[in-house]
Amino acid sequence: MWRILSRMAPALLAFSVLCPAQPDDVQDLGPKIFQAQWVSVARLPNDASSLIPFPWGDDTLTDGEIEVRAKGQVKVDLEGAVPEVSYALLVCRLSSVSDRCSPLGTVPTDSRGRANAVVPWPEGATGPHSVFFVLRRSEKTMFVTGFHMPSGVPPVTGNPPNTGKPPEPPKPEWKEVEIKGTIDSVGSGSFVVGGQTVLVDAETRYVGRVKEFSDLKPGMKVEVSGTSVAGGVLAARVLVTGKI
Predict the structure, then answer these.
(1) Torsion of CA 219, 59, 49, 51, to 10 degrees
(2) 199: nearest Cα among 182, 213, 218
(3) Distant-in-sequence, close-in-space partners of 217: CB < 8 Å, separation ≥ 6
(4) Which helix (H) or strand (E) holds 14?
(5) What is the pLDDT of residues 45-94, one digit of tens each?
(6) Which domains does the chain have, with CATH numbers?
């Protein structure tokens, strides 16, 4: 028996090193009660009356998201930000007073400009909140919560006839699409192949030479499988076929 256990010991040790224990608070932060994208202030129009704290910076960002969770935690994810720096996370009231923003914590990025941080919501700050969030670095606001509207969204024209019944929602015409070509450019949550916009979401799979959205670069040859949506093609699968 001891001979068998002695032979198993190295394997058990290696397994314990490869599979470290995860803290309980990372496993369950509670349901989402707020969610938004991060938007680079460098892409916003200059507005001297904006509530977003000045001065503004010009850090780049590929993608990012913030979630407020019901167990009193704020989760921040970034991709394509400045590598190996620390951003200050602030929550701001919709007010013009000078002290409208309060610090929550820091969000560090790794060598690839990615961040996955969880900071606590102020203890005892329960009840309703009408706020927005910012990330600052070097005393400048770099990112603010918002959303990116895909290009090509058709405008709403005219008024539907009043029939006394609520209008029926439009039925999307889903159509499977395959695109092969070279990446022209990479934006926030999307990239362009042969002049056609390709959108990605949390369900998009990356296979071949890339593992995630931040690995995509202009000049790469790709094969995209997805469905046609307003503003482009929603990718279900992205395969890089050429050399990186």
Answers:
(1) 110
(2) 213
(3) 183, 186, 244
(4) helix 2-18
(5) 888 889 999 999 999 898 899 999 888 899 999 999 999 999 999 999 99
(6) 27-146 (2.60.40.200), 176-240 (2.40.50.140)
